[in-house]
Amino acid sequence: MSGPNSSYDPVQVTPLGEEQVFAMRDEALAAIAGAADVDALKQVRTDHAGDRSPLGLANREIGALPPQAKKDAGMRVGQARGAVNQALAARQEILEAEAEEQMLVTETVDVTLPWDRTPAGARHPITLMSERIADIFVAMGWEVAEGPLVEAEWLNFDALNLGADHPARTMQDTFWTEPAENHVVLRTHTSPVQARTMLTRTPPIYVVCPGRVFRTDEYDATHSPMFHQVEGLVIDEGITMAHLKGSLDHFAQAVFGEGITTRFRPSYFPFTEPSAEVDLICFVCRGSGVVDAGGSASVQCRTCRGEGWIEWGGCGVVNPRVLVACGVDPERYTGFAFGMGIDRTLMFRHGVGDLRSFFEGDVRFARAFGTEI
Ligand code: DAH
Fold first, then answer.
1. Which of 58, 256, 286, 352 has the smallest CB count inside 10 Å?
2. Which residue owns the Cα nearest ligand 1 atom 3?
3. Mean of the per-residue pLDDT values of the chain
4. 338 Cβ closer than 6 Å to some ligand 1 atom
């Protein structure tokens, strides 16, 4: 920086003379006009309007000039800097507007373009329902239990108090594997998972088990040699039928909607005592058996065939003989169990008339249930 001058010598202040200042200004203005985008302009601002730019340095020089020179140079440099700053602001505005316009163009989505036409497929409605049911129970703190499809006869029948003379053990219902002396079956229900769970875990037990089961049924609109069930099992201290009823009511509401309750009808299952058939109040007619047909007319409800209730599955208090067979102390623990068909649940929930629709692999059928992943 120059030292203070005692007298005004125009020769000494040439760097701040009109020509130089105008040249700095013009150079800056040219650079501003030439900045192609906001980033480039930022650099121009540093180079031509920053503290270390020619005009910035010139500004610093002013202080060292004698009064008259200071006034002249101050005015010139001030005006030049003002012009540069104004040009910077104007250019900034233009470039920002351009950038925005550019973004609108490049980020435009042409909704008329053809999309990827490869069909995404659909998850199977039975898979979706099984997962949904599992989620309902997991949300209550239960666990999901699994067992093999090819099962020991003892677990499928004996452990569940199904004596050797029980009709379900005859060749009509059960797929036996060979050789017969191995006593291995395709599980006829998900109930052997109850036995497996009690044998491998210690109470408290809260499990739900959706899965495939097999029976030697004809393949028709309401039967299939392979279908799906969901089993529930609770073993804990002080468990009663009231806990069973509450759990099933919650299950019913979660699947069929608010206000959908269950009722028990006395029944018999070897693995529960007492046992009950569980019915669901019809979610279409809400128990009345009839639906509005316009005006004051009403017709029989098709979903429950006028019954007002829909058969859903079996349930009961776990038979102490089962607890003993599976190593659970019946003096300390009680429990409940239930089992229902998943395919059947889907059929009446969605008005599916033919069970075979689930097994024919037509993705158009599956897609109607949604394609959620
Ligand atoms: N296992 C029975 C069946 O396949 C269904 C069932 C009934 C399961 C009562 C249970 C139960 O757990 O308590 O028909």
1. 286
2. 189
3. 91
4. yes
**Statement: residue 5 has pLDDT above 80:** no
| Separation of alpha carbons 97 and 261, rounded Å | 62
Eight-state DSSP code of residue 210? E
Nearest ligand 1 atom, CA 340: 5
| Residue 364 banded pLDDT, cuts 50, 70, 90 | confident
DSSP one-letter code for 123:
-
Asked whether the CA dihedral 253, 254, 255, 257 is positive or negative, the reply is positive
Q: DSSP secondary-structure letter at 352?
A: -
Interaxial angle between packed helices 54-62 and 67-106, expressed in degrees from 0 to 180 and rounded to the nearest 10: 150
Query: Does the pLDDT value for residue 12 go beyond 90?
Result: no
Tell me the pLDDT tens digit for each residue of 73-119. Answer: 888 999 999 999 999 999 999 999 999 999 999 898 888 888 777 76
**CB of 187 closer than 6 angstroms to any ligand 1 atom:** no
Does the pLDDT of residue 301 top 50, yes or no?
A: yes
Gap from CA of 338 to ligand 1 centroid (Å): 6
For residue 176, what are the contacts with CB-CB under 8 A and spacing of at least 6?
184, 185
> CB of 156 closer than 6 A to ligand 1?
no
Secondary-structure class of domain 125-367 per CATH: alpha beta
Cα distances from 112 to residues 1, 103, 146, 364, in angstroms, run 66, 19, 48, 25
296 CB-contact burial (10 Å; exposed 0-12 / middle 13-18 / buried 19+) = exposed
C-alpha of residue 132 to centroid of ligand 1, in Å: 20
317 in contact with ligand 1, CB cutoff 6 A? no
- Kindly state if the Cβ of 269 falls inside 6 Å of ligand 1: yes
**Ligand 1: residue whose CA is nearest its atom 6:** 339
Higher-confidence position of 363 and 238? 238
126 HSE (CA, 13 A, CB side): 21
Q: Quote the pTM value.
A: 0.70
Domain spans in the chain, listed from the N-terminal domain onward: 10-106, 125-367
